[in-house]
Write a structure and sequence with these properties.
Helix content: 55-70%
Order of helices and strands: H
Radius of gyration: 29 Å
Shape: rod-shaped
Largest sheet: none
């Protein structure tokens, strides 16, 4: 019966594994804040688009109703909009 022994050249040493984990951690520390900045910029852009749409609908509503402002966003069909920050 043949005995099985590990080939020392095929396995990674502990320092190699630790260095690889450290590099992955550094890359993640760089990437995660960039990702959150991207998400926040997307939320702001969506809020700007929503506000522009609401503004147009409110002006149209006021033109049609003797310049009376709407009671709520539901009146101008924008009730489904939510606060992008909350």
């Amino acid at each position: 019966m043949k005995s099985r022994c590990f080939d020392a050249q095929r396995a990674f040493s502990l320092p190699e594994v630790l260095i690889a984990v450290a590099i992955i951690g550094i890359l993640a520390a760089i990437a995660v804040p960039s990702y959150f900045k991207y998400i926040e910029k997307a939320r702001v852009a969506q809020a700007v688009v929503d506000i522009a749409g609401m503004s147009g609908l409110i002006v149209k509503y006021m033109d049609d109703n003797n310049y009376e402002p709407p009671d709520s966003l539901a009146t101008v069909r924008m009730a489904d909009r939510i606060d992008p920050w909350g």
